[in-house]
Specification:
Keywords: Signal
Distance between the termini: 46 Å
Structural class: alpha+beta
Strand content: 35-45%
Shape: elongated
Oligomer: single chain
Largest sheet: 8 strands, antiparallel, barrel
CATH class of the largest domain: Mainly Beta
Number of domains: 2
Low-confidence stretches: 167-176
CATH architecture of the largest domain: Beta Barrel
Strand order of the largest sheet: 5-6-7-8-9-10-11-14
CATH topology of the largest domain: Porin
Mean pLDDT: 80
Radius of gyration: 45 Å
Helix content: 10-25%
Length: about 350
């Protein structure tokens, strides 16, 4: 491989440094018949020798679509190598030329001598200012290009177009549909805050999964909230409240705003800390309400969603520690605000 890279570099140098006068003359071309010794002992193959010849001539002089032939045979001479060459006649009808190279210690050094000898016999120096013989001139290279395909537009004469009113509608129906997918699957994660409905402000997060059509969307959501501040009721009883809510949301959808109905099932848990325990608990509640979603597209896949949720509970949950008077009773109304990052898995 390093040897072939070196040969290719020689070709590029030859193509770059070739004098303009040589490039202006007609080029010659011949086929190469190459017989290396047996064993080859690091001798270049026919392809590499063709690259060496291209480096001497400044272009790919070895071709397979021409008649003239240059034959090269490499022989062992004691511990050295020698090449014998036969080439096409310099004039049409004359005898072919024959020559030998000096011996070289390595077969690769000999290959460079072979390329130099062929150029001396058939290169520009052999013709002087005259053009090379016609029987040695390279035929023009034919470049086959792929035909350009253009769409065929069928246009009927006006007289026929009037008789076929459905033609334009048929042509328009053949255009590709660039609209979005009819059903889009969305999922999202976000943060939520409940300013009203718990013993104090609750913070947490939510996750949802849903599908969206052109004018309708449906989501299933799970939300968890906790009150960071310790203090329940008017007596500020030490404790925190936690609520888990599962909701189903059918929505009327537009490009940037969704109007949703909310059906929820929630559980409220209260932790009073050490020394006190809730011995009886029934914190389940069903609620109905509404939500407004506003979403802004960030990319083809991701969007930013903000929402405001109002939910009316069917029952109020009371916390009673001493006696029969409740120390705290949950409001029937719960409000939640949130923001989420959504991903569209249909693009």
């Amino acid at each position: 491989m390093p040897c072939r890279l070196a040969s290719l570099a020689a070709v590029l140098c030859g193509l770059t440094l070739a004098p303009p006068a040589i490039a202006a003359k007609p080029k010659i071309a011949f086929r190469l018949e190459y017989a290396p010794p047996t064993p080859a002992e690091d001798c270049p193959d026919a392809e590499e020798l063709a690259f060496m010849l291209a480096g001497e001539f400044g272009y790919m002089v070895v071709r397979t679509d021409v008649s003239p032939v240059v034959r090269v045979e490499v022989h062992h001479v004691r511990r050295s190598f020698e090449a014998e060459l036969w080439g096409p006649a310099l004039e049409d009808g004359a005898e072919a030329w024959h020559g030998k190279t000096d011996t070289q210690g390595t077969c690769r050094e000999l290959a460079y001598d072979i390329a130099s000898l062929v150029r001396a016999r058939l290169g520009p120096g052999a013709w002087g200012r005259e053009a090379p013989p016609a029987h040695l001139t390279a035929p023009p290279e034919i470049e086959v290009q792929r035909p350009e395909l253009r769409p065929l537009t069928l246009r009927l004469p006006e007289s026929l177009a009037l008789l076929v009113p459905w033609t334009s509608a048929f042509v328009e129906s053949s255009t590709p549909n660039t609209e979005e997918a009819p059903v889009q699957v969305e999922a999202g994660l976000g943060a939520a805050v409940s300013p009203y409905g718990l013993p104090s402000v609750g913070v947490g997060g939510n996750g949802f999964l849903g599908v969206r059509w052109r004018r309708f969307a449906g989501f299933a959501e799970v939300r968890g909230l906790i009150t960071p501040a310790s203090g329940i009721g008017e007596r500020q009883i030490p404790g925190r409240a936690t609520t888990w809510t599962g909701s189903a949301l059918p929505c009327f959808a537009t490009k940037h705003v969704d109007a949703c109905a909310v059906v929820s099932l929630s559980q409220l848990q209260i932790d009073l800390g050490p020394g006190r325990a809730v011995t009886g608990s029934d914190g389940f509640s069903v609620g109905f309400g509404g939500r407004i979603n506003g979403h802004i597209s960030l990319s083809d896949r991701f969007s930013l969603l903000g929402y405001a949720d109002i939910n009316m509970q069917l029952r109020s949950i009371a916390l009673v520690l001493d006696g029969t008077v409740p120390d705290w009773r949950s409001p029937l109304l719960r409000t939640t605000l949130g923001v989420a990052l959504t991903a569209n898995f249909s693009n």
